[in-house]
Amino acid sequence: MLEPVVRDGRPEDLDEVLRLWVQMVEFHADLDPSLRMRTDSEGQEHMRLFLQSCLDSPDSRLFVAEVSGREGLAGFLLAHIRTVSPIALPPAMGYISDICVEEALRRQGIGRALYLAAREWFRERGQSVIRLNVATANPVSQAFWRAMGAVEQMVVLRIELG
After folding, report:
1. Which domain does 133 fall in, by range?
2. Which of 6, 20, 37, 71 has the fewest CB atoms within 10 Å, counting from its CB?
3. Is residue 162 part of a domain?
4. Which residues fall within 8 angstroms of residue 42, CB to CB, at 6 or more apart?
5. What CATH number did the domain enclosing 48 receive?
6. What is the dihedral of CA 120, 6, 48, 70, to 10 degrees?
7. Taking a C-beta distance cutoff of 8 angstroms, is the pair 82, 88 a contact?
8. Number of folded domains in the chain?
9. In angstroms, rounded to a whole number, what is the distance separating the alpha carbons of residues 7 and 63?
10. pLDDT by residue (tens digit) across 106-120?
């Protein structure tokens, strides 16, 4: 197991985060073509603007992982506090929108370290629930999240309209 250092992301990390994000998006598109996203320069610029808005928001946190002796980021996780509904219990909850670990470094504790940092941030912010989405075509990610304590709550269905 590696001993990653997890820290808050900074503007100067965005190129590396985008590199990992493209890796994640292409991985998912290979699993299920319906999960394709734009990874061209325009798509990456939109994602960069979104990441910058997350860095500027008190309700979002970008966590990045580094491994000693290795150039570049080993992974990232994007966490948010989301208001669900004023009548929901709880009315707000933690949400993990993205997590990616460099392919060559997977299954070495980096994803877990990123998750634990996010979990602590959610607790500090008074959140009692974390929600996230996992592709049905990605059993490795499903197993990871179940190992972190996640349980299935809802099933998302999709209808292609042609």
Report:
1. 5-147
2. 71
3. no
4. none
5. 3.40.630.30
6. -160
7. no
8. 1
9. 6
10. 999 999 999 999 999
